[in-house]
Write a structure and sequence with these properties.
mainly alpha; 164 residues
């Protein structure tokens, strides 16, 4: 049983790590979006209007990539749990625990046998693994879009320097 708890803690750590990466991606997107919105007038200088208008599509593409990255990040923050209904309510799943009073929960722990408890723990490990996998996939996509936006801004800046 001890090994199952270690595995549970490891999978819960994966979820925490994915959440930390999501926070970093959201912060990066917020920084880029703030810089773009604050300095957009300075980026498109009136004396270089003909030069920058030719490359303004890069700025629009970067903005679109930032928006997509933020949307994917918010989808990654909210895990979709699909805990199947058991014959008996779970003593591990937080949502089902919160529906019980303390006395009901303690009584449930006292009467459950080790095999049933181990089965519930394995189901919870599986649920957390699914959540961790989905979060990791979505945050990876979000990071690709963020890096794409940074790349677009870099190319835009290089084109701007090259044409000046």
């Amino acid at each position: 049983m001890k090994d199952y708890w270690k595995l549970y803690e490891q999978v819960a750590g994966w979820v925490k790590f994915a959440d930390a990466k999501i926070s970093g991606v959201i912060a990066g997107n917020a920084l880029l979006f703030t810089l773009l919105s604050k300095y957009i007038e300075k980026l498109i200088l009136p004396e270089n209007a003909s030069v920058t208008i030719n490359y303004v599509w890069m700025l629009k593409l970067a903005l679109l990539l930032i928006i997509v990255s933020v949307i994917l990040s918010f989808f990654a923050l909210k895990p979709k749990l699909f805990f199947k209904e058991l014959n008996t309510p779970s003593l591990i799943y937080f949502e089902q625990i919160s529906c019980k009073c303390q006395k009901q929960y303690i009584e449930g722990l006292e009467i459950i046998d080790e095999i049933a408890f181990k089965k519930e723990l394995m189901e919870q490990i599986w649920q957390l693994s699914v959540v961790a996998s989905r979060k990791t996939f979505r945050v990876a996509l979000s990071m690709y879009f963020l890096f794409g936006a940074i790349f677009c801004l870099f190319i835009w800046y290089m084109l701007l320097l090259y044409t000046m």
